[in-house]
Amino acid sequence: MRADIATAMNALQLPPEDLVPVRSIRYSAVLSRILETFTIYGAQGRDHPWLWEGFKGEHYAIYLDKPEGYRWLPRLLPPDERVWLLTEDWERRKHDGNYWVFEGRIGTIEAVLGELFAFEYYIVDKKYEWLLCKNHHNVLIGVGSRIIKRLQAAESTPIASRDSGA
Fold it and tell me: Which Pfam families does the UniProt entry name for this protein (predicted)?
């Protein structure tokens, strides 16, 4: 997954500092805090394949027609907001946990996700106040009041077509 993201960033000519893998010395702490804050699994969930099955607290879901959850990002969050991005390790190359953790800008994440094959990902506020997930069932799930309110507001606004020039 790290190589796929790097390839997409190069193809899009995006600055590498706009989406970087979290170094191993911070990885465990960041992932554990996300798991403890948003899931019933706690830190033991690092190997769980589908975190969305165990979200805790209030959450809200939108069922998508296509695997294009990334297209909702501009309506939900500012492009320069820095967040955590968790991507599943669907190739099973990681030795520690089932997730890659990146730190990056929403605008960059949107562009990169648009270039990659459909997979599950989680976008998490740097203050750990909300989480946004797109799962393999094409469901966009928000956890935390801020992102829930934004999802509900955005749900009534149509998404401009990527090819329409809008």
Answer: DUF6756
